[in-house]
Amino acid sequence: MRSFAAALAIVFALTAPSFALVDPSERLDDPQQEARARAISKNLRCMVCQNQSIDDSDAELAGDLRRVVRDRILAGDTDREVYDFVVARYGDFVLMTPPFGPATLLLWLGPALVLVLGGGIVFTVLRRQRVRPAEPRLTPEEAAKLALLLEKDENRRG
Amino acid sequence: MIVELGHFALVLALAVSLVQTVVPAIGAHRRDVQLMHVAEPAAILQFLLVGAAFAALTYAFVVSDFSVKLVYDNSHSMKPMIFKVSGVWGNHEGSMVLWVLILAMFGAMVAFFGRNLPDTLRARVLAVQASIAVAFLLFVIFTSNPFARLDPAPFEGTGLNPLLQDRALAFHPPWLYAGYVGFSMTFSFAVAALLEGRVDASWARWVRPWTLAAWLSLTIGIAMGSWWAYYTLGWGGFWFWDPVENASLMPWLAGTALLHSAIVAEKRGALKSWTILLAILAFSLSLLGTFLVRSGVLTSVHAFAVDPARGSFILGILMFFVGGSLALYAWRAPMLRAGGIFAPISREGALLMNNMLLSAATASVFIGTLYPLFLDALTGEKITVGPPFFNYTFVPIFVPLLCLVPLGPLLGWKRADLMAAAERLLAAAGIAFVALIASFAFFYEGPWLAPFGMALAVWLVAGALSDVAWRIKLFSTPLAESLSRARRLPRAVWGSALAHGGVGICVAGIIGVTAWSDELITAVAPGESAEIGGYTLTLQGVALRDGPNFDAMVGVVGVARGGRDLGVMLPEKRRFPAERQEKTEPAIRTNGISDLYVVLGEQAGNGKWVLRAYRNTFAPLIWIGGTIMGIGGLISLLDRRLRVGAPTGARPRLAAQPAE
Hints:
The structure holds two protein chains of two kinds. Chain A is mainly α. Chain A folds into two domains: 2-94, Orthogonal Bundle (Helicase, Ruva Protein, domain 3); 102-157, no CATH class. Chain A is built from six helices and no strands. Chain A has helices at 2-15, 31-42, 60-74, 79-90, 105-131, 140-157. In chain A, 28% of the residues are buried. By secondary structure, chain B is of the alpha+beta class. In chain B, helix 1 packs antiparallel against helix 7, helix 8 packs across helix 11 and helix 16 packs antiparallel against helix 17. Chains A and B meet through helix 1, helix 5 and helix 6 of A and helix 13, helix 14, strand 1, strand 7 and strand 9 of B.
């Protein structure tokens, strides 16, 4: 069953992008309401596609959901109410932006955590550098080699 | 017969790579020169054998030998030749053979060019490289045999997914794989260095060109993939934060960090152990990408194979190499001697900052891509992590990084004068400010953040120019002097300026498309017109056309601007009878700065057709910028100083010595 679902998903993923997008007949007459519907549609996932919003998808289910969104807007719902309506039926999975909550704490704070951790490491490295004794002096041979190199380098530049 | 020979060559390659894994490693351990020198001929032989297998498979595709299951599944006799050839890697089995071929090619290159590497290091690098080959050859031979036969042989093949029948996409996988697999080289060098227990400047000097080559290939591969998405998927999107795209972005980000930290390791002997870790991470992320795409954990356009056996096998490979190398790192890295010290405000400090931000950016992509998988596995809860997540996390990390890019190259090593560097960027800052004002004036209706993005883009380009201008003392010495300085400027400097400028151009494109594009979706009957962004589009009619392996509905759309006729655009809707699929072929009219993008949609009833059109401001800049980045990488790669052992002017011998 699982592999069938996956196969189905592939078929949709392969065929869906090739056409896609809103049908002009779906559009609302009021441009402001239509703009709201488009913005919401971009944030709702097409459930049978791979990582496509219903705004981008030509799958039948996406079309149904687009109509639902427009119906709710016509019925006078606020954006919040439209989202709530859809989430109540499909779950958080339908939202392109996962909600902030206990289950997604690490998701939302993870990148910042890495940044802070990285900053901490960099800070310690730089501090440790300051207290570390200077590198040992060059041996006479090394100093001679260095002088030779520098001279060559000078000649090359000049 | 040829097909069986190919299969046999693949098995022989496995045997050779087993020998190449074991014998040189023992040789390096015992300091036995003869055993160590088994590595080079083995690496070259392995490459020739995998090459033979790949050639045999290509032959089967070219002559449309449908008795081979893979050819039957992915080809069709009517398909144009270029797509017969690209069909070789347009499927799971064939793409894995290509993967192994590139892996073997890199190994052979080390065997060929690496004569002046220390014996033990070269032997160990080739042994590690061969161990990766062993793992993937086992994978191909036991779970993904491309040479399986069908009996009786079918008369005709089932064709290739029309989306994959495309010129840019034909060459997208080889570039991408060259990038992924290129990082295997830096990985092998890192593991070999850990086994050796020492990292010196000559090591870093060797790692840089391989990193650069891998990064360059990956940049081109990603740019091609995104270009393909732009003109194929039908509405001008270029990046979707799709898991498979992220799978290629993660090694790119880690590789970019590695590219920069390797400079510090080479020039200053600092950050060695971090560079090793990055080299391991970059390849681990490449393996992760391969796993995500090939296992079917994430189904998408790219995932041809949904097979649990394959998934677990690659997961095993992933865990072995990532776990093994990280364990080795934890054990051996403390033995590495830390290098030169530096003040926080210095080139090293700037590169460290670059690495920190790039790592955090990589982490944000990593978390966003894998979190849904882990959450589902642990709690059964399903969530979607879509583009908005990355806009909230990735972008805020990346923008400061981009702001700092022009500053880095102007800081000196060890201890730098921030004020002096800032002074050199005064002109660039002024130009960026003008760009900010101009974008506000010109696009006053757009989102208010976009002009700042535009200023950032201009800041990057002007900053890259300032870097070169300062180095050749433009305007502060006579022009002839500046020109002669420009000629003598190391190629790596030109390369870095081009790459950084390319990033700026790319940013401008992304901002333009995201913020200032127009969209038109309408239904028109032949003879009717619609307006978009100052253009008048008239549907003159819809005609039929026969292609080599498809038939197409062609919309004839007249374009005019301000009453002036600009000719016709011909968007198509293609139907592929063999594959039983459809594909839209948009028509794009570009002036190099902005695109007019027209798509023929469905028939809308009463003689009307759905017509979609987009005015994609600055869209071409995305790929122009990407190409410039690639060219920058190439020019850096051609820098004489990167070629170990290449005579560098007056000192032919000293160059090959480790500079410790």
